[in-house]
């Protein structure tokens, strides 16, 4: 799951400064990179140079904008993910990355395949009714069997990386990064004591079971289009994105 010293060239190697690409603006990050003796390279998420030693992504939006083939490991700053560095600890985290004293953690990315196409998600995929206060009926399949069928506003499938986000707010569990499972949680279920499920991060299939209300698919909060009744939405592993862990974050082994 992880490798020691995977953040690239150390700042104390003669004549060689680590190149840290920065997605998103933050004065504290710029100052920390300078203090660490590294080179700051402002970049756009869609145009990342291949010779970067690390990418510093400021804010959750910056993290979610990164391509699945990001050429360098990512230091997340100021987001809600378990690997994100709080603003107060930016200087120490950047110094650790520049010195080669961080660890690379592989975070799974999932492919979301539906009738309208295929996309990827780092945190979660969700089916939800397009209009507020409308419910529909959904089913969940895993490993070729039906796990549940229920009525709700929607249903969210979260990766371990995304389990502390919307799924957690909807009542789901927080998952360890290396657990290899997904949290599947109804959104505003029409039930007094609703179930939640922890399923293998293999193929999870969602379906809309009734033609009662318009339902749309969201992947990492991106609107991917409508989902018709009985059309399968398949969620399955599709590689990983490398993150940098410092100060003990994300270093647990599972």
Automatic annotation (TrEMBL):
Annotated InterPro entries: ATP-NAD_kinase_PpnK-typ_C (IPR017437), NAD/diacylglycerol_kinase_sf (IPR016064)
Domain of life per record: Archaea
Annotated segments matching region Disordered: 1-20
Coiled coil regions in record: none
Pfam families linked to this entry: NAD_kinase_C (PF20143)
Gene3D superfamilies in the cross-refs: Probable inorganic polyphosphate/atp-NAD kinase, domain 2 (2.60.200.30)
Basic and acidic residues composition-biased segments: 10-19
Protein name: ATP-NAD kinase
């Amino acid at each position: 799951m992880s490798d020691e010293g995977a953040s690239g060239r150390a700042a104390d190697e003669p004549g060689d400064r680590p190149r840290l690409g920065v997605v998103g603006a933050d004065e504290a990050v710029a100052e920390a990179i300078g203090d660490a003796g590294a080179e700051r390279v402002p970049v756009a998420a869609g145009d990342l140079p291949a010779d970067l030693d690390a990418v510093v992504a400021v804010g959750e939006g910056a993290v979610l904008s990164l391509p699945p083939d990001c050429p360098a490991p990512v230091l997340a700053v100021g987001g809600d993910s378990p690997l994100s560095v709080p603003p107060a600890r930016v200087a120490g985290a950047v110094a650790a990355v520049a010195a080669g004293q961080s660890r690379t953690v592989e975070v799974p990315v999932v492919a979301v395949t539906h009738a309208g196409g295929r996309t990827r998600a780092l945190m979660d995929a969700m089916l939800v009714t397009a209009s507020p206060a409308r419910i529909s009926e959904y089913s969940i399949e895993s490993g070729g069997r039906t796990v549940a069928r229920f009525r709700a506003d929607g249903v969210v499938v979260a990766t371990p990386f995304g389990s502390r986000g919307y799924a957690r707010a909807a009542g789901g569990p927080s998952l360890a990064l290396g657990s290899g499972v997904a949290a599947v949680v109804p959104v505003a279920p029409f039930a007094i004591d609703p179930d939640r499920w922890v399923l293998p991060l293999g193929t999870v299939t969602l379906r809309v079971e009734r033609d009662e209300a318009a339902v749309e698919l969201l992947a990492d909060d991106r609107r991917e289009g409508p989902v018709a009744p009985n059309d399968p939405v398949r969620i399955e592993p599709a590689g990983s994105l490398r993150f940098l862990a410092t100060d003990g974050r994300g270093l647990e082994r599972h």
